[in-house]
Amino acid sequence: MTQPLRWTLADGREQLYFSLPGHTPAPVGDRRPLPPRGNQQSELRFDRQTGQWVVIAALRQDRTYLPAADQCPLCPGPTGETSEVPAPDYDVVVFENRFPSLSGGGEFTLPDTAGAEFLSAPGHGRCEVICFSSDHTGAFSQLPLPHARLVVSAWRHRTADLLSRNGIEQVFCFENRGEAIGVTLNHPHGQIYGYPYLTPRTEQMLRVAGEHRARNGTNLFADLLARERADSVRVVAQTDSFTAFVPFAARWPVEVHIYPNRFAHSLLDLDDSELDEFTEIYRDVLQRFDRMYPTELPYISALHQYRDSERQREGYFHVELMSVRRSENKLKYLAGSESAMDAFISDVTPESVAQRLREV
């Protein structure tokens, strides 16, 4: 993949255009009267009850919320006066979020959490938006394979860049699709977060994986993958290099995990042929999601990536796809047990979901 074209928005935010072969991006000057950046920054606060960092980002209250299609800020804006993408067209574009949960560069170190006082720190990090296509009514599942592969290349590029920056501990690429999930813009897009700490779920999985290594001398994720492949009843799709399956203890009404068949920490560890296969199986699973019900399936797509470091050495790259839709016309609400106790209760069996996804 050739290097992206770098551009600058009116308030100084960075923008990158990733293009298919033969396509040349042609952005124009961003003429919007945007307020200067830096007037507000989020804050990290340490929750001593859980030992977790919480991001307080009051500036996000003012973010754009479900605009009409003709006012979408992610559609191309050839005049440079209306859109976050000042260009007549584009393939894939990434830019710094105008309303970031985390922002700021330069030197940063999380404060020591020892002690009893209320503890806070600047909301250091990076939040980016990635637009999968200029087509407002499209979806990742509908992208032609080369275009979908370009998105994967952009994810890989941004992962490498953000991991190289000071104070970034974890890079998280994800997509929220559907108003039932909570999207505020219906244009097909995702987000990329650079966190200054390991997220609670990542820490928990690495802790359990470390305990598994101490007991068994093997990698937890690799062992789970091998067991799912051997059982096969929950496997949804396979290629030579990847396996997609509904996990044995699925939490969500629809949940599929995609793993490479060999150990990798992140997209950075996969070669070109593996990235091609990853694109194929990822798109295949999303197309199965689209065929489950008459209406589109709302979902979250989460790319679990890890550093090649002592602290994260047991981390095995995989994607977790999940949906709150439990039937054609019913949603699973994360109510008391799930939201207050983090104790999930599933309304369907993982085996039945896997069978349904295989059939569609």
TrEMBL record:
Binds 1 zinc ion per subunit. It is an enzyme of class 2 (transferase). SUPFAM superfamilies: HIT-like. Its cofactor is Zn(2+). InterPro entries: GalP_UDPtransf1, GalP_UDPtransf1_His-AS, GalP_Utransf_C, GalP_Utransf_N, HIT-like_sf. Keywords: Carbohydrate metabolism, Galactose metabolism, Metal-binding, Nucleotidyltransferase, Transferase, Zinc. Its EC number is 2.7.7.12. The keyword Metal-binding applies. Zn(2+) binds at residues 72, 75, 136, 187. Residues 22-44 are annotated as: Disordered. Residues 40-198 form the Galactose-1-phosphate uridyl transferase N-terminal domain. The active site is at residue 189. Residues 213-359 form the Galactose-1-phosphate uridyl transferase C-terminal domain. GO terms for biological process: galactose catabolic process via UDP-galactose, Leloir pathway. It comes from the Bacteria. One of its GO terms (molecular function) is zinc ion binding. Belongs to the galactose-1-phosphate uridylyltransferase type 1 family. This is Galactose-1-phosphate uridylyltransferase. It comes from Mycolicibacterium smegmatis (strain ATCC 700084 / mc(2)155).
